[in-house]
Design a protein that fits this description.
The protein is α/β, with parallel strands linked by helices and 660 residues long. It contains 22 helices and 27 strands. A 7-stranded mixed beta sheet has the order 8-17-16-15-13-9-10, with helices on both faces. Strands 2-1-3-6-7 form a 5-stranded parallel beta sheet, with helices on both faces.
């Protein structure tokens, strides 16, 4: 098994003191048990320190001298030493850059109170007196601190339990895989999955593994460590994805009829959350990049206008970053919302790693958001469905949240998923910066390689940004690579098939003109090379390029007649989209939809429950259904061969409260 390296950087401007210190500490590290590979390196200036912290992903902690003077050669003012940077300033810079690092201060005896007072509000983990030269003592404390951060309380306990090999008189029924092992019919499943998948599949009957619904032990501890790592007051592990996380927050913050501002392009779980909570949604239209048929963020002005127009809203939810990697300049948006006491929820399903590299920050929480939901499984090393809910809301109502969380949580959660969240947090803290630096370098390399084919073209921020959002401070997460494939001559479907069948490559998603590739902490140089090789070979086929496919623009949002929840729970009736002569059925115009109708791609609902259907929308749905292109239409019901929409019956409309 590879052994970790934990480098600790000592920053001191006196060459002799520094050399002696580093030597003493390394000797201590060699002479005492050192499972984390702790070693010490020294630098004399703040500048060198910051460069080392930027360049060396193995640095886990820093020891900063309380005052850093310039080097002797740079003395000014009649031979007096010139201050380079105060400890407080250096600590601030270090923690702004890599908040996961442990920071200790070396203080000169006489200034103890001043230093401790000045650093009181900073994230300092401890102090040592320089003059004591207690190298073994310092080493032991640093070793303990790094071990503490590297702990995985839940995963450790799960392993302990498995190794205890207790007899199981409880669920699950496979009982550590005993029901499968040796079976002539299903033993292959056991062999394929591996013994520990079954050993670790345990249940609430094991108290030492704590309870996800009322955590007081190792789950509580693991969640607290995640909160610290991700910069939240509280963190909760969700085992049914961000889909559930969003719904839990909605049901906590929104009572029926209360207003929610939301991007119409939010994930479908957000729209489902509107139905479940009974909220009154105010939809903000996402911007459209007409050229590539990509829906982007909501223009900043539109968000500010909505906040001004609806100061009675309880919450605002936006997705940042989007599936395509576009992220908002969140701080001013959060500030505007907070001025009206509107809570801000940011769906960071695609951005769970952001805290661990300055390229991606500020995170939603750092920008002031009250809640952030993250699909840890999408971009970090957690199992599918494993997500986190981070809370920074000063008015957090824990009791209400807990009720809603438990309402959506299975009483038999998958323990391996919880363990994977614990491990994903540990990895992000210990080596997230290093891995993300590598991912960023690979993303840059991949973009250059793809562009060098001169047939495929990666889209830069300027290509992706819809016109209306230029100047909104939106940035691109470079690990999401969108490629214009129109130059290769294949349709997107053909290209995906070719990549899959001939080159063994599966991409993340596609639109009519683009493919999106997702780079994560698991992306390797070999994968990059294989993809480049495949694209280069396809490019060399020199097929004639296609024209960009025009994506049909989704009609603007029409009137919301009733609360989505009220409309959804009506029985309704099915009305066909085409009449007997295969023309669009104009009788649908003026009716109120009971379901959510979402063409995919792009995944934006054209209709939500309670929304009025206009002739324009019927035409649009008719066009999509007649088109030969592959497109799913979620929410359309087929009665025989007839595609239908579920709408409210006239008497059902009469029985409901109309909005505005
Ligand atoms: C923006 C957004 N939010 C939420 C989700 C749901 O996340 P999960 O798959 O973890 O349930 C997705 C999934 O694709 C998403 O794209």
């Amino acid at each position: 098994m590879p052994k970790p390296t934990s480098r600790i950087l000592v920053i001191n401007d006196e060459a002799l003191v520094l050399r002696e210190f580093v030597k003493g500490l390394n000797a201590a590290a060699r002479s005492i048990d050192n499972p984390l590979g702790i070693c010490f390196a020294g630098v004399a200036t703040a500048k060198e320190a910051l460069a080392a912290i930027e360049g060396d992903g193995d640095i886990q902690a820093v020891l900063v001298d309380d005052v850093l003077y310039s080097l002797p050669g740079a003395r000014k003012n009649g031979g007096k030493k010139k201050l380079q940077m105060s400890a407080i300033e250096l600590v601030k810079r270090i923690t702004r850059f890599r908040p996961e690092l442990s920071v200790y201060i070396l203080i000169a005896q006489e200034k103890e109170d001043d230093v401790v007072d000045a650093l009181f509000t900073e994230a300092v983990d401890g102090y040592f007196y320089r003059e004591e030269k207690d190298y073994r003592g310092i080493y032991r404390i640093l070793n303990a601190q790094i071990q503490e951060v590297a702990k995985t309380p839940f995963y450790d306990q799960l392993k302990n339990y498995v190794w205890m090999a207790k007899d199981q008189w409880h669920t699950p029924g496979h009982s550590s895989g005993e029901s499968l092992r040796g079976s002539p019919w299903v033993n292959d499943f056991y062999e394929f999955m591996g013994e520990h998948v079954f050993d670790a599949d345990l249940s609430v009957s094991v108290p030492m593994l704590d309870s996800l619904m009322e955590p007081k032990g190792v789950i509580a501890e693991a969640q607290a460590m995640a909160a610290k790592a991700f910069g939240a007051r509280r963190t909760f592990f969700a085992t049914n994805g961000t889909s559930t996380a969003n719904k839990v927050i909605f049901q906590t913050l929104l009572a029926p009829g209360e207003k929610l501002l939301l991007d119409r392009n939010c994930h479908k779980s957000v729209h489902h959350g509107v139905v479940l909570s009974g909220a009154h949604p105010v939809y903000l239209d996402s911007s459209l990049n007409g050229k590539y048929g990509l829906y982007g963020p909501v223009p900043k002005k539109l968000i500010f206008d909505a906040i001004d127009e609806h100061p009675d809203a309880e919450a605002l939810i936006l997705t940042s970053c989007t599936y395509d990697g576009l992220r908002y300049d969140l701080a001013p948006i959060v500030e505007a919302a907070h001025k009206k006491n509107i809570k801000v929820i940011i769906d960071e399903a695609w951005y769970g790693f952001a805290r661990f590299h300055p390229e991606f920050r500020p995170t939603a929480l750092e920008a002031g958001a009250d809640y952030a939901t993250q699909s840890t499984h999408k971009v970090l090393s957690a199992f599918s469905q494993a997500s986190m809910i981070h809370v920074n809301d000063p008015g957090f109502k824990e009791h209400l949240f807990r009720e809603n969380f438990n309402m959506h949580t299975s009483t038999s959660p998958q323990y391996t998923m919880i363990a994977s969240l614990d491990v994903a947090r540990k990895q992000a803290v210990m080596e997230g910066y290093k891995l993300l630096s590598r991912t960023l370098a690979l993303a840059k390399e991949l973009r250059e390689q793809i562009d060098s084919t001169r047939v495929f073209r990666t889209l830069a921020l300027e290509d992706l940004l819809p016109e209306q959002t230029r100047g909104d401070g939106i940035r691109l997460d470079p690990t999401k690579v969108t490629v214009d494939v129109s130059g290769c001559g294949y349709t997107v479907e053909e290209l995906q098939r070719e990549l899959f069948e001939r080159y063994n490559i599966q991409v993340e998603k596609s639109t009519f003109n683009t493919l999106t590739l997702l780079l994560t902490v698991g992306t390797t140089r070999s994968k990059v090379s294989r993809l480049y090789d495949a694209l280069m070979r396809i490019a060399r086929e020199r097929r004639s390029p296609r024209r960009l496919v025009q994506t049909p623009e989704i009609p603007g949002f029409t009137k919301l007649r009733f609360l989505p929840r009220d409309a959804y729970y009506c029985g309704g009736e099915l009305v066909p989209i085409f009449d007997e002569r295969e023309r669009v059925n104009h009788a649908l115009g003026g009716r109120v939809c009971a379901d959510q109708i979402t063409p995919y791609p792009p995944g934006i609902p054209v209709l939500v429950p309670g929304q009025m259907i206009t002739p324009n929308i019927v035409e649009y749905l008719g066009d999509l259904l007649r088109s030969q292109k592959r497109m799913e239409l979620h929410g359309i019901v087929h009665e025989g061969y007839q595609p239908c929409v579920r709408v409210l019956k006239p008497h059902e409309e009469k029985g409901l409260n109309r909005l505005g």
